[in-house]
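Record type: ASSEMBLY
Status: queued
Input:
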Amino acid sequence: MLGIVPPHLLREIINRGDAGLKKWAINTITLSEQVRMTRQTFVETTISISEQKERRIYDAKNKSTLPGVLVRVEGGAPVNDPAADEAYDGAGWTYDLYKNIYGRNSVDDKGLKLDSSVHFSEKYDNAFWNGAQMVYGDGDGKIFNRFTKAIDVIGHELTHGVTQYTAKLEYQDQSGALNEHISDVFGSIVKQYSLKQSAVQADWLIGQGLFTPKIRGVALRSMKSPGTAYDDPLIGKDPQPATMNDYNDAADDNGGVHINSGIPNHAFYLIATDIGGYSWEKSGMIWYKTLDLLEKNSDFEDMAACTFEAAGNLFGNNSAEQESVKKGWNGVGITVKK
Amino acid sequence: MKIYFERTGGFAGIRTSASLDTDTLPPNESEKLHDMCNNMNFFNMPSKYESKSGAADLFRYKITIESKDGKHTVETTDMYMTPELENLVSFLSDKVLKK
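Status: finished
Output:
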């Protein structure tokens, strides 16, 4: 039958068919398109909604087929696997932050179930959002530990989902760096929220504890001091700029999305510490409301203008908060254009 | 046969790369690489697999192979892999770690 059934029909079967047919269709589509469709079909087939927090943790068993075996559901007892339990707890803190502080019901605001797969692939030095779920690697043990070890990584990945349903920032160049930036902001806020730390008490590090002791570095990124998170013979030096003077015109990494995010990251740090208090309250609220003002191709100047506008909407024009926003962007070399 | 491997992106955004020449590799590894490339029909693979929109922090892999048959580059991400390509990526990633 291979080659006779058109791909759109195969996709229908994958979405609607019984288990046996589904498997056949996936195999067929894989053979004909030479890609492993199971990874993408998951996006289309298992999206489901809930009225309240609903987490599902899967074990990918060191394979790269998603989601893997279901090991823990909402309300279930810990399963004595640090990766699975950290993914569960971190997704819980992230859901609670969005729900309790910003009134958002999950990443889509419609109660999308929070799915996470741990133990993805072998010695996998990464965590990602695939468009529908979070995925975490165990690390290679030489450079990286498991990626669930830092709660801000979990907040970061889930926030990619929030951005996907709100600002839809294109993952390339400055809009891509803003997509990364927003994930770092709310990732750090989730950590601060879980520790009840004020902006001044927070470490503002992203991925603290992910490096093994063999690597000279405290974390992957620093919002307080971009460019200082690591400096090691094996992996090089943290390349993040803190200001527009050091903007990096890299072609790699979708135009340096994980590099230039250092600039807005540092602006957020300056603003949150200037406004003071808990960063999830005023500063976080400004950033959350900004998500609705951005467009998919927004750049750093647009971001500065939108945060200024959001601060005005929330706290009034010429308010102290709005002044802090303006000052923070100035601090990284970006003038707010009104 | 010469192989250039580059991995960019990912949560950390740290670039890693490796260059291999099967003439200077131990015979068993050289043979394994030749077999992998032949089995996956590397030179006839599409040169680019696009990543799905909404996804973020994926690794991007770029593999260039040069042999008597010519030179070909394949770029892909974690979400667009054939099992054969995944084996090759995992072999090359191991090489990077052992450097």
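Annotation: Chain B touches chain A through 31 residues (CB under 8 Å).
Annotation: Chain B has a mean pLDDT of 89.
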